[in-house]
Amino acid sequence: MLAVENAFPGFSVDDLDAAREFYGSTLGLDVVDEAVGGLRLTLPSGQPVFVYPKPDHVPAGFTVLNFVVADIDTAVDQLNDSGVTTKIYTDGWAFGTDERGIARGSEENPGPVIAWFRDPAGNVLSVIEM
User: Fold this and answer.
1) Contact 114, 126 (CB under 8 A)
2) What DSSP designation does 76 have?
3) How far apart are the two ends of the chain, measured CA to CA in Å?
4) CA 28, 119, 121: angle at the middle one, nearest 5?
């Protein structure tokens, strides 16, 4: 068996400067330049995430980070006010998102209260009310 001491997630972007600005200024995370040429994001839990440049980057079509929020409506308003689009899926997909991109779940489509958005590299992120 592998003797693992720790683990951390990572994902690629096509523009480190845009990622630094987005994750630091728009989302308010602590962002530090790594000596190896990437960025270290620190999530509110203290978990580090490595973001690295990739010239042939292809955006993740799945959610790479979920940000837990106390109030989904306030979080979506804040994102939209910052120029972030939260309506990234068409109607009928993703539990039936509303006009603001919020999926609230229902008896027919149970699921979380969640809204998805993209970072500047096109990776999918979410805000989720627990």
Assistant:
1) yes
2) H
3) 35
4) 135
Amino acid of residue 11: F
In the β-sheet with 48-53, what is the strand arrangement from edge to edge?
Answer: 10-13, 48-53, 39-42, 30-33
Integer Cα distance of 19 and 27 in angstroms: 10
* Buried residues in 61-76 as b, exposed as e (16+ CB within 10 A): eeebbeeebeebeebb
Q: What is the pLDDT of residues 30-88, one digit of tens each?
A: 999 999 999 999 999 999 999 999 999 999 989 999 999 999 999 999 999 999 999 88
CA distance 21 to 85: 16
Identify whether the C-beta of residue 106 lies closer than 8 Å to the C-beta of residue 58: no
122: its two tokens = 């096109």
Residue corresponding to tokens 């720790």: 6
